[in-house]
Amino acid sequence: MTIPHRDAGPLGTTAVVVVNYGSHALLETNLAGVSSAVPEATYVVVDNFTSADEQDQLAQLGRSHHWAIVPLSTNTGFGHGVNAGVDAAIAAGCTTILVLNPDATIARESLERLATAVRNDRTLMVAPVVRESNGRVWFGGADVLLDDGRMSNPKRRPEREGRPYNEWLSGACFAISAELWVKSGGFDPDYFLYWEDVDLSLRVQRAGGHLEVDKNSEAIHDEGGTHTQRLRWRAKSETYYYYNIRNRLLYASKNVDAAQRKQWLKATPRVSYEILLQGGRTQFLLPWIPVRAYVKGIRDGRRFIAAHRQN
């Protein structure tokens, strides 16, 4: 694979890395707009295989917009896909990495702010405020509470004073230096989908980095735009439920102490139900869909905890 040449400039050593999974139509709208506005950056699109036709469509887009395409033979998950893209970008000499979802877009000014912040502070992992297309804030920073594994808004820290937490940045859009990425180890592919950004944020901090949300930059995210199995009345996919429930316990097996793991396990039935409720109550008209994700997610998540105990 050859990375297309880019002109020198302030963003000439920045790579925008995107993982595709059957989403070439989204890329044709979203990433094409970004690469047109910021032509001096390098664009690396990793294709988690869905079909030969999808690969052909993506290859055509790559040629049209001068994107480097990294085709994979199977669906390896979001984290592994990003890792492959970042490896290619670093090998091509890129020193600043911006990870972007295929269902997200970012204006030149915001992209440049994030890249400049990382160029000036190589120990920084920085994210923009992420908004939905209607203007509602979708992500502006988040904490995972270590006493029960729930998510919380940083604005609520004063009312939960004394409760331990880890802050984290969304994988939908963030920038990081190549050296901090390598030092932190990149994404853990064990997560496959969801919670890998929570895990990476912690390992970045353990590697000597720090996190920041730049309130003066923003990205626009069409949440769930890559979930092809969503039904008209269901706000979240079965995939979303399963991996969020499962990976909460995977994170616990890797990152919290024995006493906290017990608390997470105790809270699991209730917290998992709260995850289902993110999709609203109408979905329970066909209850086997969310219930199946609930049961399988808890079962497989508990296996990670059991395996940790054996080790």
Could you walk me through the main structural features you see in this protein, from its secondary elements to its overall organization?
By secondary structure, the chain is an alpha/beta fold. It has nine helices and twelve strands. The strands form two sheets. Strands 1, 2, 3, 4, 5, 6, 7, 11 and 12 form a nine-stranded mixed β-sheet that branches. Strands 9-8-10 form a three-stranded antiparallel β-sheet, covered by helices on one side. The longest helix is centred in the C-terminal third of the chain and has 23 residues, at 288-310. 44% of the residues are buried.
DSSP helix fraction: 40-55%
Overall pLDDT confidence: 92
Low-confidence segments, ≥5 residues, pLDDT <50?
Answer: 227-233
Main beta sheet strand tally, sense and closure: 9 strands, mixed
Choose one word for the global shape: globular
Number of strands: 12
Helix-strand makeup class: alpha/beta
Number of helices: 9
Secondary-structure element pattern, one letter each: EHEHEHEEHEEEEEEHHEHHH
Q: End-to-end distance, in Å?
A: 40 Å
Residue fraction in strands: 15-25%
User: Any idea what the radius of gyration is?
Assistant: 19 Å
